[in-house]
Amino acid sequence: MHGTTGEAPLEAKPSFLAERELVRIVHSDCCVEVEANWYSAPQVLIRQRVSVLVRDQQVLILYGGRIVAEHRRQRPGSRSRQVIDGHWAGLVPQQQQREAVRSLRDAGASCDQDCEQRTVRSSELARPLGVYAELIGEVAA
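^ thats the sequence. predicted structure below, dont judge the formating
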């Protein structure tokens, strides 16, 4: 019971801060930025506008009213990257994906408990710019 009003609290109704809806554009790395963290979306949505629901423990990415990706929410400002298997399919050669994953695993094994999780370095996923130009239909001069 509330001391002043004498009313019972509304336990069944979540706080109005429990969920936020944002609008983001999927970047060329298949990710959207939320609270200085990056969450992946399917590569077919690159350059598309998506809705992002930020909840207490999860981040949902929606396109056309349907959930296309679900991620565990990271601490705001931690600059982490959450990528679902398959979202980079066709963008990064499989061998480079394996090398990037292996380098993350190796770095984690050599890191003590206070070390933050390392993100994928861009040099581990780099391809010549001509490959990207070809993907978007530009002709090299």
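The CA atoms of residues 18 and 124 lie 37 Å apart.
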